[in-house]
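Q: My labmate handed me this sequence with no annotations at all. I'd like to see what the chain might look like in three dimensions before we decide whether it's worth expressing. Could you predict it?
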Amino acid sequence: IVAAAMYLILSNITSFISYVFQAINETKVASFSTIVNRCFYLVVLIACVLLRISSFKVYLFFYMVAQGLSLAYCLWKGRFLLESKPLELKRSFGETIASMKVGIVLTVSNISGMLIMGLARIVIDNFWGLNAFGEVSLSLSIVNFALTFITQASMVLFPALRTVDKNSERSYYRKIRDGLAVLLPVAVLFYGPLRWLVSIWLPQYSDSLIYLAFLFPVCLFEVQTDLTVGTFLKVRNELKALLGINLAALLITLLAQVAALLVFGTPMAAVMASLCGVASRYAIGTLYLGGVYADRNPKAMACMYLESLIFMGCAYFLSI
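A: Here is what I predict for the chain of 320 residues:
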């Protein structure tokens, strides 16, 4: 708990400065701060595993050091921000309220989006205990690690798309949406090698990696949603629409989780319930933007779902 409290301070300050860099179109700085964090911790993680260090305190310490390095980099690159004079009190209150009107909607929207997958962790931990949670959490962490790097592209897309006119905006939406529909399914080819490597590294978790088969499609839908639906709704300043889409998907996830508990009563069903929420958010968002731009592509959407179902079926019933 103490470590979490300390980490929140470091993380919030880093995030604040990172968002400022994004706002002034210095996305490379924001992205590189994340790379510094992840790469340093990855190196330490591999070293600790090879040295068979079992104390969780060591991992927590270096996790905070990684975040501290990210913050130090942001502070150094943003030292001009620290030299700025503060605004007068009356004006700062006005600016704060104006920011909060937009920020609260976006914050609730982001939390709703995070809860779609987060509900699976909460449900599994409460109903099946820490062992089942650990098995699912490993697969979720692998997926989240991949998503962290992939979704960095949205930071570059957003400021670039803010400068284009409405006609070009529609064209870019179509190209990005259809391009991702073709490229993203290639990611499932990494499932076999990744599962093989992790089973060698953590043999005690080899059986539980079957969850990875049902979480891999999360990457397909989350990346498509983040890079197209989320980015283009922010470009259009339709934050209430984004909130509505996320809340609708969260409601579907809640209903699916209830059904998973009452009908199936297994951790796998809880994972599938969250996958339903992620897939529904992609569908609702894509259909909404397709209507806005008068450019729907139901065949591409149908292919994404069909490819995911075929992959999950093959990964579950066949050997690697």
